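User: Show me an example of a complex going from sequences to structure tokens.

Assistant: Sure. Here are the input components:
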Amino acid sequence: MMLIPCPWCGPRNETEFHYGGQADVPYPAEPQELSDVEWARFLFYRANPKGLFSERWNHQAGCRRWFTVRRDTTTNEIFQDDSHEAVTR
Amino acid sequence: MAELHGESPLAARAETLAGSSVPGAVQLSEVAFTAQITLRVDPKSPAAERIGTAVGTMLPNQPGQVARTEQLQILWMGPDEWLLVGPEGSAGRIQATLAEALGEDHGSVVDVSGNRTIVEVTGPRSRELLAKGCALDLHRRSFTSDQCAQTLLARAGVVVLCRDADEPSFWILVRASFARYLADWLADAAAEYRDRTRQAASVRTLANGSDR
């Protein structure tokens, strides 16, 4: 069980949250210009790093807001934006 | 034509709740038919200020903060969202007040009275009882009077509202469709206090018997 720091409600149990995948995936500026391959790449291709990963979470059972956290995928340590000190684990 | 009548979501569990209440430990009951209005508005807008003036208290801006007026409790539900809980029958009036104060500005006022019902948990053991199914720290140093939290209680989504931290009194706002499940869970969780009271009583009877 992870303790995820909601920017509004503070640290809460993982079970209160919904995972939203990789953060900062930009929507194509000219989606109609994209080939099928490029469009598929935008829709389905996501990074899967071993280590730090920026991802979206939704505090579903709480304030129902989306936010971004950086998580180390090997240790599940969660870092506040731009910091190298783990907030929770 | 039949008379219109409302039945609260826990009408069928009234006896269960009353029967699981243990004087001196924990009391359970339903607070039915409260008026509940969801308000969404930008907290920094003039509309939010007008609404604050209209209801008689500023909208709470800290997570989990609850503001009270004579009639209303205003619960922080999100950075731009509040739940106003008032006495039975006041939904229309609250809604009109809010809508008038909001005016043409961007925001919304919705009557959600039918969404949730309220289970009142009081008594010295209430924190212990709730802690059996809730991961939050309910100790009064961290969850004090007039604080609320949206969380999971026994896997059901609820709003927990601390009405009084000194003489523990909590309101559990739960969706109508989850209410009976939660009432059953609470009744089950409270069973040990009833058993304990009974045991204590029988131990006393035994002790008195051996004295003779």
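The lines above are the inputs; the final block is the predicted structure for all two components together. The beta strands of chain A are 3-6, 10-13, 18-22, 52-58, 66-72, 78-79, 86-88.
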